[in-house]
Amino acid sequence: MATFFLSHGGPTLSVDETIPAWSFFKSWLPAAGAGAQPPRAILVVSAHWETAMPAVNVVPGINDTIHDFSGFPESMYQISIDDWPRLWNRSGDAEFGIWRSRGVAGLGSSANRLIIDEFLHELKYPAPGAPDLAMRTKELLEQAGFGPVEEHHGRGLDHGAWVPLMLMYPEADIPVCQLSVHAGRDGTYHYNLGKALAPLRADGVLVLGSGSATHNLSKMTLYEAPVPQWASDFDTWLEDSLMGGRYDDVNRYDERAPYGKVAHPSPEHFHPLHVALGAAGDESKAELIHRSWTNTNHSIIESTYTVRIKRRDYTEDFPRSQSMWSSQVRGANVRAYKGQILMKTSYKGAHVCACLQ
């Protein structure tokens, strides 16, 4: 089974059909060539779980959904769903800008910000846990010298896991386990850690690295603008390195990539790629299966690479998704989603998806 690296974007990706990556993840199985049959279980390496030592979540029942959003108002955690109709009636039918040319990120009125924030906070992805996969992951890592591996029995799925999975496998019926990334460790460490997990692929386990191809919050822009040079140059280098099989360069991106430390001032959103590369095995080949750019209010310029990795002697043609497109900032349209009112936003920015095989 192939392994993948993907950029998970912000939590709005799970509900906003105007984000280019939304369509890609919704058509996951045919678009990514992930196979006609669903995996037995999924191991997600998320940028949003950092620990000093490797850790897995061991959940015998249903995974909790963790709403670990950064850059969102505190009101997300304070307002009741019962208040939505009242807040909506107060705001009327005005046009609401997601971003104004002046001011801060957010909706055009506090009422509508509360509506969308509370809607996102209520999203659930009740996938079953995968305690057997957690223990097998622990066993493989400790055998390879990456122990001790901690067991976390009360931790659910953070948005690096459930946001893409909600689109890829919406039934939430596949067991999911999370593996942390490790603060203070480099790309080579995470690559070798991934190599220890390679046997999982033969067991029907889908290994997903969930992070971002670029992730620099300080470079966030609220304006409609072309992709900045630093992001474009890093993205081009990353694609060339992955497609050319120069994985050691990718592991040492902070030394060898143009704008490496600008694209990733901190490495946690890039380490899931290193794990996915390692888990693919030495005889792997990368393929870019989706690219788009999204400029969000908290994850900024973000290239999404979905990395599919498979054995070289396995050949099959898979359709490629369309290349990048973008929509203009025109405010927001009200729509219904699963019977609830929310904002359908429209904005421009960056997403990229690559695949290793």
Secondary-structure-derived class: alpha/beta
Unreliable segments of 5+ consecutive residues: 71-112, 296-307, 309-357
Number of DSSP helical runs: 13
According to CATH, what is the class of the domain at 14-68 and 128-231 and 274-296 and 304-329 and 349-356? Alpha Beta
User: What proportion of the residues is helical, as a percent range?
Assistant: 25-40%
Total strands: the figure is 11
Name the shape in a single word. Answer: globular
Radius of gyration: 20 Å
| % residues in beta strands | 15-25%
Largest sheet: 7 strands, mixed
Q: Which strand order do you get reading across the main beta sheet?
A: 5-2-6-1-11-7-8
Give the CATH architecture of the domain at 14-68 and 128-231 and 274-296 and 304-329 and 349-356: 3-Layer(aba) Sandwich
- The averaged pLDDT comes out at 71
And the CATH topology of the domain at 14-68 and 128-231 and 274-296 and 304-329 and 349-356?
Protocatechuate 4,5-dioxygenase, Chain B
Distance between the termini: 9 Å
What does this structure look like?
There is one protein chain. The protein has helices at residues 20-26, 28-32, 84-91, 110-122, 131-143, 159-168, 187-196, 199-202, 229-243, 247-251, 253-256, 260-263, 271-280, and strands spanning 3-7, 41-51, 55-57, 150-152, 176-182, 205-211, 286-296, 300-303, 332-337, 340-345, 350-356. The protein contains 13 helices and 11 strands. It is α/β, with parallel strands linked by helices and 357 residues long. The strands form 3 sheets. Strands 5-2-6-1-11-7-8 form a 7-stranded mixed beta sheet, with helices on both faces. A two-stranded parallel ribbon has the order 3-4. A two-stranded antiparallel sheet has the order 9-10. The longest helix has 15 residues, at 229-243. The protein is globular. It has a domain at 14-68 and 128-231 and 274-296 and 304-329 and 349-356: Protocatechuate 4,5-dioxygenase, Chain B, CATH 3.40.830. Residues 71-112, 296-307 and 309-357 have low confidence and may be disordered. Pfam families: LigB. Residues 3-80, 114-296 form the Extradiol ring-cleavage dioxygenase class III enzyme subunit B domain. InterPro entries: Extradiol_dOase_DODA, Xdiol_dOase_suB. Belongs to the DODA-type extradiol aromatic ring-opening dioxygenase family.
